[in-house]
Amino acid sequence: MGKPDFVFPKQKIALFVDGCFWHGCPLPKHSNLPKNNQEFWAKKLQANKDRDKFVTRELRKLGWRVVRVWEHELKFPEKVAAKLKRLF
Predict the structure, then answer these.
(1) 57: domain range?
(2) pLDDT beneath 70, residues of the chain
(3) Does residue 35 fall inside a structural domain?
(4) Is 1 a member of any domain?
(5) For residue 71, is it within any domain?
(6) Tally of domains within the chain
(7) What span, in angstroms and rounded, lies between the C-alpha atoms of 80 and 74?
(8) Is residue 46 domain-resident?
(9) CATH number of the domain that residue 35 is part of
(10) Burial 51-79 (b: 16+ CB within 10 A, else e)
């Protein structure tokens, strides 16, 4: 279900690294809409966010732990590692 970037099957952990633009990062400087065709992009990006929520919900129903990391968070690998360490 979905396409996790990393899967830890033994621990049933699915890790997604969400691109700030494509997945609608809540920080404005990371997810500005293009100036052209804004209606299209608003719908497209909202559909992506809705799909992400659906995938997360369905995986959790199947007993998986889902971790989502924003692209910009990769600049701080120690924080990402700490987030993962809590799950193991």
Answers:
(1) 6-85
(2) none
(3) yes
(4) no
(5) yes
(6) 1
(7) 7
(8) yes
(9) 3.40.960.10
(10) ebeebbeebeeeebebbbbbeebeeeeee
- The DSSP letter of residue 86 is T
Identify the pLDDT of residue 18.
97
Residue 6 CA to chain centroid, in angstroms? 12
Q: Whole-model pTM?
A: 0.87
CB 66 within 8 A of CB 12: no
Structure tokens at 34: 């293009």
Give one DSSP letter per residue of 3-72, joined into a string: --SEEETTTTEEEEEE-HHHHT-SSGGG-PPPSSSHHHHHHHHHHHHHHHHHHHHHHHHTT-EEEEEEGG
User: Is the CB of residue 55 less than 8 Å from the CB of residue 1?
Assistant: yes
Q: For position 32, what pLDDT does the model report?
A: 85
- Give the separation between CA 46 and CA 23, rounded to whole angstroms: 8
Q: Of all helices (H) and strands (E), which one includes residue 73?
A: none
